[in-house]
Structure formats: C-alpha cells, structure tokens
Amino acid sequence: MLRDALAALPDAQREVIVLRHIVGLSPGEISGRLGRTEPSVHGLHNRGRGALCTALTEMQCAPIVGTTVAA
C-alpha cells in the first residue's frame, strides 16, 4: 500500500520523499542533487508528506497518532 501511495504522488514530491526518508539525504543535499532551491525542497517535502498521509489514511493503513490508553 505504501508503494501505491508513493506512486500516486507527483514525480517531484515522490523524489523528495524518497531521497529524504529512504536515502537519508538532507534538504540541502536534495536541493543540490535536484537543482532546486532549499525552500522548494521543503515545500515539496511538506506537500508530499501531507498527500502521502492522506492516501494512506484513505487506504486505512495510516498509523493512529494521539490516542491515549486509560490505565
């Protein structure tokens, strides 16, 4: 499902997400590699993460965050 959600992203967002979270590059390294400004990389990363989260939520496989278990 993660592969499907990544495939649904625009190419630029997917590339930034993969380089940041799978390859482990910093935003500065990504901007140099892709020939984009660092603010552009930050914007693509932010929009890509949001779209990825939305897609995974729609597939009902996103992590549940912010719930507390009563003791």
Question: Mind explaining what this structure looks like?
Answer:
- By secondary structure, this protein is mainly alpha-helical.
- It has one domain: Winged helix-like DNA-binding domain superfamily/Winged helix DNA-binding domain (Arc Repressor Mutant, subunit A).
- It is 68% helix and 0% strand.
- It contains 4 helices and no strands.
- α2 packs across α4 and α3 crosses α4.
- The longest helix has 21 residues.
- The radius of gyration is 14 Å and the shape is elongated.
- 14% of the residues are buried.
- The model has no long low-confidence stretch (mean pLDDT 91).
CATH topology: Arc Repressor Mutant, subunit A
CATH architecture: Orthogonal Bundle
CATH superfamily: Winged helix-like DNA-binding domain superfamily/Winged helix DNA-binding domain
The count of domains is 1
Mean pLDDT: 91
Shape: elongated
**Name of the top-level CATH class:** Mainly Alpha
**Helical residues, percent:** 55-70%
Kindly state the number of beta strands. 0
**Estimated share of beta-strand residues:** under 5%
Element-by-element helix/strand order: HHHH
Q: Radius of gyration over alpha carbons? A: 14 Å
Give the biggest sheet.
none
Distance separating the two termini: 33 Å
Q: Label the structural class.
A: mainly alpha
Number of helices: 4
